[in-house]
UniProtKB/TrEMBL annotation:
Official protein name in the record: tRNA (uracil-O(2)-)-methyltransferase
Chief location: cytoplasm
UniProt keyword Protease, yes or no: no
C3H1-type domain residues: 263-293
Any single GO CC term annotated in Swiss-Prot or TrEMBL for this entry: cytoplasm
Function summary: Adenosyl-L-methionine (AdoMet)-dependent tRNA (uracil-O(2)-)-methyltransferase.
Catalytic activity: uridine(44) in tRNA(Ser) + S-adenosyl-L-methionine = 2'-O-methyluridine(44) in tRNA(Ser) + S-adenosyl-L-homocysteine + H(+)
Superkingdom classification of source: Eukaryota
Gene: Trmt44
C-alpha cells in the first residue's frame, strides 16, 4: 500500500494475523503450511504476482515470498486499495473459514468471498483508503527497540546480585564432602544448596527486585545470563559445579580440537575470586582465568 512501485520480500515466522495471533482454519494442513498460504493470500489480495522460494539458511522456517510485480494497472490502484481495506476488516470481524486454495488462483477465489462480507465492520472502516489510517488502534513498535533482557544493566549492579544470590546458596546448607580440585583426596568444596526462584527473591532487597521487574524474565534471566556461576533448572537455582560439565568431545576434527585447546582465557573465574573454597577445577582445566596473569 506504500506505493504502486513498491516490491516486497517476506520470510514468515511467527503465526500472527493483522490484529493478533493467527487462528487455524485448516486441520488437513500443518500449521506452518496453512500460515504460509495465508501470507501468500495477503499478497494476492494486495494485487501482487506472488512467488514462493525456499532459502538456503539453517532454519526450519525457510519459505519466503516475493512480490515483484502487480496484477493490475496503476489506474486501478484506488479500487484495489478498497479491496485491501475490506479484506483487513474481514479478518477482524468474520470467523468464516478461509478456502483451501493454493498459490496461483485469482483474488476472488483466494479470499473465498471474505472481502464481500466486510460490511459488518465499524462505521467508516469500509471507506478507508491509502491516505487514511489503515487499521484503527494499530500501534507499531518503537523505531529503537529497548533491550530488556538484563544485558544492559550496570555491571556493578549485576555483580552485586550474583554475589548476593551465591552467598545465599552457599550459606543455606552445611558444607558437603566431595573431591577437591586436585582430584583423589576427599575435601570440602561447598556446593551450596538449591533454592526456588521465589525463595531467592524473598531474600533480595526490594530495590533490586524493583529494578529487575522492568526486565523481561527478571531475576531468572539475570541468573541464566550468569551461567558461569549458576544453573537454573525447573525453577530452582543451583551453584554450577564445573567438574560435572561434559568434557569437549574427542570426536572433534583435529583442527577444531587444536583451536579449542589453544583458546585464550578472556574472563576471570568467579569461583577463584569469590568462592570461599576457590575454584573446584585446577587452573589448566578451568575455562576461565585463575588470576589476571592468565588473561589474554
Amino acid at each position: 500500500r506504500s506505493s504502486y512501485s513498491c516490491c516486497y520480500f517476506v520470510l514468515p515466522c511467527c503465526f500472527f494475523d493483522f490484529h493478533g495471533k493467527y487462528s487455524r482454519r485448516q486441520s488437513k494442513k500443518t500449521q506452518y503450511r496453512e500460515y504460509l498460504d495465508f501470507v501468500a493470500q495477503v499478497g494476492f489480495v494486495c494485487g501482487f504476482h506472488v512467488e514462493e522460494d525456499c532459502l538456503r539458511i539453517p532454519s526450519t522456517k525457510r519459505v519466503s515470498f516475493i512480490g515483484k510485480s502487480r496484477t493490475y494497472p496503476a489506474a486501478e490502484r484506488a479500487v484495489v486499495d478498497q479491496q485491501i481495506t475490506e479484506f483487513i476488516n474481514s479478518r477482524r470481524t468474520c470467523a468464516v473459514a478461509t478456502c483451501d486454495r493454493r498459490v496461483g488462483f485469482n483474488h476472488e477465489d483466494h479470499c473465498g468471498g471474505l472481502c464481500k462480507e466486510a460490511g459488518s465492520g465499524p462505521p467508516g472502516d469500509e471507506t478507508e483508503t491509502a491516505g487514511t489510517v489503515w487499521m484503527p488502534g494499530f500501534q507499531p513498535r518503537e523505531k529503537v527497540e529497548q533491550v530488556r533482557n538484563c544485558a544492559s544493566l550496570p555491571r556493578d549492579f549485576v555483580d552485586e546480585v550474583v554475589l548476593s544470590v551465591a552467598n545465599l546458596l552457599l550459606n543455606a546448607a552445611p558444607q558437603k564432602s566431595c573431591s577437591d580440585k586436585q582430584g583423589g583426596n576427599v575435601n570440602t568444596w561447598n556446593r551450596g544448596e538449591s533454592l526456588s526462584l521465589t525463595e531467592v527473591a524473598e531474600h533480595l532487597d526490594k530495590e533490586i527486585l524493583k529494578k529487575l521487574k522492568s526486565e523481561y524474565g527478571g531475576l531468572q534471566t539475570l541468573l541464566k545470563n550468569n551461567h558461569q556461576v549458576f544453573e537454573v533448572l525447573n525453577g530452582r537455582v543451583h551453584i554450577r559445579d564445573w567438574r560435572k560439565e561434559k568434557p569437549a568431545s574427542k570426536t572433534k576434527p583435529e583442527v577444531k580440537r587444536r583451536l579449542s585447546a589453544e583458546a585464550f582465557k578472556t574472563r576471570l573465574c568467579w569461583f577463584f575470586i569469590h568462592h570461599p573454597d576457590g575454584c573446584s577445577l585446577p587452573s589448566e582445566a578451568c575455562p576461565y582465568a585463575h588470576g589476571t596473569e592468565e588473561l589474554r
